[in-house]
Structure formats: C-alpha cells, structure tokens
Write the structure tokens for this entry.
Amino acid sequence: MLLTIIELWIALDKLVLSQISLLRDYSPEIPESLLHRLLLRDPLHLRRLPLAVEYVQQCVYHAKVRYSIFSDAVDERNFTVRYFDLSPDLQSLRDRILDAAGIQKEAKRRELAEANDRHARLCQDASRTSHTYSTNQYGQEVHNSSWCCPRCRLDDEIQWMRIAVHEWPLPRDPQQIARVVFELSISQCFMTKNCKKIEERDTLLFTILFNKKDKYHTALFLSFLCQDMI
C-alpha cells in the first residue's frame, strides 16, 4: 500500500509541478530509505518500485540545498516569498489591501478628530451644567436619578464614548507581507481546476487503501482522482 501511496503522490507532484515549476527547488521530503525498506514479492511491484525510487531521487537531485517547503523561516528561500515575488496577481492583491487600509486609516483619523471635538464640547457643557435635586416625601433633598439629571446624562455620555481601533492589515516587513498575502490567496494559487478536489480526495484515498484493500477500489480511486486531468 505504501508503494501505491507514493505513486499517487508522484502523479500529484507531476501535476503541481506542471503548474508551479518553482516547487522543483524544494525537497520532496520523502526519504529514499523509506522505499528501500519495502518488502515486495509481486514481480509487478518489483518493477514499479525502481520507477518510484528514481523519481524521488530526481526530485532530491534538482532540489536546492536547505530549501524546504515546510520551513517556517521567512527569508529569500521561503517558498511563499519567492512565489509572491513572481506573481503579479499577489502583488496586485497586496497593493489593493494597502490602498484600502490607507483609506480606512484616514477615515479613522477623521472619526477620531470628530470624536475628540465632541468629547471637548460635552466636557464644556458638563462644566456649565449642575446636578439637579428634588425634595422627597420626607422633606429631604435628594439627587435626581441619572436619567433625570442633565449633568449625570452628560457625564455618562462622556464616560461611554468609544471608537473602534483601526488595525493595519499587513505586517511591516516585506517578506512577512508576502507570506500573509500568499496565505490569503492560497485558494487562488493552488485550488486550480485540476487540484481543487485534492483535500477531499485525501480522505477518500485513505478510506480506500486502508479499508478496501482490493484492486477494484484502488482502480476506482485512481479513475476518480484523474477525472479532471484529462
């Protein structure tokens, strides 16, 4: 079953590389020793194994040193950064995000200025307004409830003034920006017509290969996997 899984990975890898050649620079992250440990008896399997080993070896050979697709380091070797630098669409998305953020920031500044002006006016009004009192049934002077007292109403309005914080949507570092924009647009980058069902098919793959261990279901899976590749 492991050999079949590797062959399915090879088919998907070839498909993705035909669309994103930049991935050739990155290690497949599949150790050759994994394939060398396989114990195969069927002559057909013995003929398939060298083809899989050769493909993995070629991927490792073409990959650049210390280039890993799973690396968390955000530098010039990071795949998302390099992909961003080669993608006009992602760069355009970054520019649209920054333009929209700039407009929102200016609008927030105007909103803050207006709120500050209103706060100053309310404070001035409050300084000129006194609390109101009334006499109760026992002849005692008591403070009116806050909703009846004009000074209390002003104080409450001042206390509860709020303005939402504007958060800049992207990091300041250019490489971090590239990574964030890539993640925002990952569906456009990778969920192409040929690849859009990969996540769903991962579950189907393991269901078939581990629960339906027969050639019929394996062939059925392969047919389903490749239906969009024609």
